[in-house]
């Protein structure tokens, strides 16, 4: 009986393995993950989802789009009598679309008209402030003329865009409401493949759909989606309409913002790490824009040829600095070409992706402490995080400035 109970516990918790009738402890896991496993039972996911659901919203966006017509209207002496038109799921008459004569009437509109119809799309989001601030994807709301937000209790509100950040594909919208439930922002820095993950959203319009899976990978680069972000990959089912909704751990903390799926596969979805989303959301709420942290370092992972060229031992680990952007914070910081970045704020950075990801979690004006190897001597260099948009504005102003020796062109 005792053995049966142990086997049942092993199946439920995944913490014991059995070999020839003997129990052996599972590999050591983190305290947070261990606590989640211990509490994982028949109702854990259901309880967590029920607690999180009031802070997850359905987002309906609408815009007026032009309908493409496969034929010309003028000069036809009217439209075919058996022609039927369907827009936005309902049948409409040609008169409604074009004005003038209807189908088969022999009338010809006075001028060619391009029919318009209301295009609707669905996305998801989650409440981060009790006074109605909601995080979602920028691609969900970027073209919206109207935004309708529906809460779990079926109340509806008009949403207004607070700010968009196309660099990260994140947005914040606002509804006029108070005392709303919110989701707790967790952390994505310690995630490991194999940890449980739960997605809640409105796939294909089915609001508050809950799916369970695991973290399939972290730090995933998907340039076809967004080369600026190192994504969380999950097999928790994500479909069109989940965009902007939360990816949660078993404690109900948000660890990612569901953003994209791989269309040629099943259950390969990608989420923006919440540590990136927190910084973006806070900035959009505070200022309506994002202060994009950047350093302006051109980096390369160490290989045999590079280690020889900069004169460091072949076994050296780290990221080599191979260039700087002119006018960047890194250029004026004291870092030098050939420096090998080994740690930032005592965090190891084995490849350029790690450096980029860490900087993205920081705020403009934060000070980063670099530990670099320079000519076989370890040095510490402090770097002030700069504002990427400030660099873009300066570059744009420089490009628009009159060139010496001739007047400015009208288009400049």
Question: Can you describe what's shown?
Answer:
Residues 1-27, 69-89, 97-110 and 404-412 have low confidence and may be disordered. The chain folds into 3 domains: 36-66 and 120-290, Thrombin, subunit H, CATH 2.40.10.120; 68-114, no CATH class; 293-391, Pdz3 Domain (Roll), CATH 2.30.42. It has a 7-stranded antiparallel beta sheet. Strands 12-13-14-17-16-15 form a 6-stranded antiparallel beta barrel. The longest helix is centred in the C-terminal third of the chain and has 14 residues, at 274-287. The chain contains 10 helices and 25 strands. A hairpin with a 5-residue loop joins strand 8 (146-150) and strand 9 (156-158). It has helices spanning 2-13, 31-39, 44-52, 94-98, 138-141, 223-226, 274-287, 304-310, 352-360, 388-400; strands at 16-19, 22-25, 56-66, 85-87, 90-92, 116-129, 133-137, 146-150, 156-158, 160-165, 170-174, 196-201, 209-221, 230-234, 246-248, 254-261, 269-273, 293-294, 297-301, 319-324, 340-344, 347-348, 367-374, 377-384, 386-387.
Question: Strands, helices and their partners?
Answer:
Elements lengths: L1 H12 L2 E4 L2 E4 L5 H9 L4 H9 L3 E11 L18 E3 L2 E3 L1 H5 L17 E14 L3 E5 H4 L4 E5 L5 E3 L1 E6 L4 E5 L21 E6 L7 E13 L1 H4 L3 E5 L11 E3 L5 E8 L7 E5 H14 L5 E2 L2 E5 L2 H7 L8 E6 L15 E5 L2 E2 L3 H9 L6 E8 L2 E8 L1 E2 H13 L12
Antiparallel strand pairs: 1-2, 3-6, 3-8, 4-5, 6-7, 7-11, 8-9, 10-11, 12-13, 12-15, 13-14, 14-17, 15-16, 16-17, 18-25, 19-20, 20-21, 21-22, 21-23, 23-24
């Amino acid at each position: 009986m005792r053995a049966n109970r142990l086997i049942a516990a092993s199946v439920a918790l995944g913490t014991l393995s059995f070999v020839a009738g003997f129990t052996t402890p599972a590999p050591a896991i983190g305290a947070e993950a261990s606590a989640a496993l211990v509490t994982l039972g028949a109702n854990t996911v259901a309880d967590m989802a029920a607690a999180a659901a009031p802070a997850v919203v359905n987002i309906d966006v609408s815009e007026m789009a032009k309908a493409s017509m496969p034929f010309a209207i003028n000069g036809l002496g009217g439209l075919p009598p058996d022609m039927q038109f369907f827009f936005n799921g309902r049948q409409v008459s040609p008169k409604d679309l074009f004005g003038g004569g209807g189908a088969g009437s022999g009338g010809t509109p006075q001028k060619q008209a391009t029919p318009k119809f209301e295009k609707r799309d669905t996305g998801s989001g989650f409440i981060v402030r009790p006074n109605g601030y909601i995080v979602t994807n920028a691609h969900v709301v970027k073209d919206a003329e109207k935004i309708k937000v529906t809460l779990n209790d079926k109340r509806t509100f008009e949403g207004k865009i607070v700010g968009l950040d196309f660099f990260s594909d994140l947005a914040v919208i606002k509804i006029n409401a108070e005392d709303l439930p919110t989701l707790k922002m967790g952390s994505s820095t310690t995630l490991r493949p194999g940890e449980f993950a739960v997605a809640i959203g409105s796939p294909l319009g089915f609001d508050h759909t809950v799916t369970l899976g695991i973290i399939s990978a972290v730090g995933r680069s998907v340039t076809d989606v967004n080369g600026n972000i190192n994504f969380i990959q999950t097999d928790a089912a994500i479909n069109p309409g989940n965009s902007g909704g939360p990816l949660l751990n078993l404690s109900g903390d948000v660890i990612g913002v569901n953003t994209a799926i791989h269309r040629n596969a099943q259950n390969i979805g990608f989420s923006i790490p919440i540590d990136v989303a927190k910084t973006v959301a806070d900035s959009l709420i505070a200022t309506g824009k994002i202060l994009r942290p950047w350093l302006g370092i051109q980096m390369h992972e160490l290989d045999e040829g590079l280690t020889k060229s900069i004169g460091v031992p072949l076994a050296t680990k780290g990221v080599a600095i191979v260039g700087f952007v002119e006018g960047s914070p890194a250029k004026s910081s004291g870092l030098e070409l050939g420096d090998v970045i080994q740690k930032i704020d005592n965090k190891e950075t084995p490849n350029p992706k790690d450096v980029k990801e860490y900087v993205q979690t920081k705020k403009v004006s934060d000070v980063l402490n670099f530990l670099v190897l320079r000519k076989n001597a370890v040095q510490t260099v402090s770097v002030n995080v700069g504002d990427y948009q400030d660099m873009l504005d300066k570059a744009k102003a420089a490009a628009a400035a009159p060139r010496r020796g001739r007047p400015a062109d009208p288009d400049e």
